[in-house]
Amino acid sequence: MSTQTFTLPDVGEGLTEAEIVTWKVAPGDAVAVNDVICEIETAKSLVELPSPHAGTVGELLVEEGRTVNVGTPIITFVSETADAPTSAPTPAAPAAEEGSGSVLVGYGSGSEATSRRRRPAPRPVRSSVGVIAKPPIRKLARDLGVDLTQVTPTGADGETTREDVVAHAEQASVFRNIQTPEWGDVREETVPAPQAAPVGLARGVAPSPARIGADESRTESIPVKGVRKATSSAMVQSAYSAPHVTVWKEVDATRTMELVKRLKASPDFADVKVSPLLIMARAVIWAVRRTPMVNAAWIDTADGAEIAVRHYVNLGIAAATPRGLLVPNIKDAQDLGMRDLAHALNRLTATAREGKTTPAEQQGGTITITNIGVFGMDAGTPIINPGEAGIVAMGTISQKPWVVDGEVRPRWVTTVAGSFDHRVVDGDGMSRFIADVAAVLEEPALLVD
Questions:
Q1: In the list 19, 247, 290, 328, which could disulfide-bond 361, CB 3.0-4.6 Å?
Q2: Which residues of 15-35 are buried (b: 16+ CB within 10 A; e: fewer)?
């Protein structure tokens, strides 16, 4: 009989801490090498942590929701005989599972993993209301606030797929803020009076217990950690280090909407979701070629500073996810045709909404698009992603009266805004860039060249 203690490993992201989100095992459970023992959340991704040992779970040393440093003991294992040394492990890839996302592997030997008992792969399950969906899809639905009974399934034998859930969530996202939360059932509560008088009260005057209870129930403390902590740090750094300037232009996007409609009806795009964001992405890539400085970056050096002009586009897409704001990017987007870019956008958004975006997918971006139109917003002044010089915001596309050939007609209209680092880009450069993006949205045929 031997006991092994497993410490939180370095997951290869250059980070020093992580939060234990969910334990997948309990004391007394039998586990095999590479069985998932818990989910951990770093500042950049949600990772499933596999077991480095085979045996029985002894003790969970860290409670869910707690953030600990790399090297902190988190769990113990009990086995009949000592496991093979793990100092030089042989990676063993776990069985693939739809929706499983990033899995940390490489603890323990491959031979052990195949010789020990493995948990069976999850099978589609039917809920009490007849919905067929695999466990990862059900978890995704819970995270996105989607009622599976309202989703139209497209999978084999009526199974609800990941794409079904994501599509339903995107359709509903615009309307979620309309609902008003209900007040709690308890208007006031009585709590013991504190020993010291609160600041602002005269000495010797006791505060009303009922008033204390009412005040405490009016506020809530939310820990700043994980993605929120990383986002806040990056935004403060960007806002206070780069001089931001924003320009915007109202655009007649009627022909963009017509092109989207045609692409949706095309057999070549039958297996991919097409939206105005696809045309916007192509427009940004096209405009970058004409104004390369918006795709550059300010670099501080020992001798002062320099500007790095990138002759490629790693196109970032700001994504609102259950874990917070993520900005994954499409590598070398300038090399992708319309259909391949559509597939890349679909994969990027689906992965981000599942919270499975890897750190590598968020690094190396050169320019970013934020689609605030999905929230019903007309325009905004976005903050530049650190390491970049420009960000483009696309507002909602709605029908408005527009003058065409001297006549007022209903047209599909949107607003394109762009923030830029004034150290890198001058006002005329960013203005030309936004004008080019607007020109493509007004006439997508410009993309033909």
A1: 328
A2: bebbbbbebebeeeeebbbbb
**Residues 339 and 393 occupy one common structural domain:** yes
pTM (whole model) above 0.90: no
Structural domain boundaries enclosing 159? 125-173
> Is 198 inside a domain boundary?
no
Q: What is the mean pLDDT of each run of 10 residues along the chain (449 residues)?
A: 87 74 92 88 77 90 90 89 44 37 36 36 41 76 78 84 77 43 47 45 48 56 65 66 83 95 92 93 93 89 86 92 84 94 92 82 92 89 89 94 92 94 87 93 84
| pLDDT score, position 235 | 67
pLDDT for 418 = 94
CB 174 within 8 A of CB 397: no
| Number of independent structural domains in the chain | 3
Q: Do 102 and 251 have their domain in common?
A: no
Is 422 known to be catalytic? yes
Give the other-Cβ count within 10 Å of 190's Cβ. Answer: 10
- In whole angstroms, what is the distance from residue 144 CA to residue 173 CA? 9
Looking at the fold, whether 99 and 140 belong to one and the same domain comes out as: no
Two structure tokens written together for 289: 């070629």
Burial of residue 242 (number of CB atoms within 10 Å: 0-12, 13-18, 19+)? buried
d(CA 380, CA 217): 33
288 inside domain: yes
* In a shared domain, residues 142 and 239: no
Same domain, 440 and 365: yes
Q: How far apart are CA 322 and CA 336, in angstroms?
A: 29
Nearest-Å Rg of the Cα atoms of the chain is: 26
Residue 235 lies in a domain: yes
- Say which residues have a Cβ less than 8 Å from residue 100's Cβ, sequence separation at least 6: 48, 136
Same domain, 306 and 421: yes
Q: What is the DSSP string of 325-351?
A: EE--EETTGGG--HHHHHHHHHHHHHH
| Boundary residue ending a domain (95, 115, 135) | 115
Looking at the structure, do residues 241 and 261 belong to the same domain, yes or no?
Answer: yes
| DSSP annotation string for 253-265 | -HHHHHHHHHHHH
Question: Could you tell me which of 59, 51, 100 has the C-alpha nearest to residue 76?
Answer: 59
Token pair of 356 as six digits: 């499975």
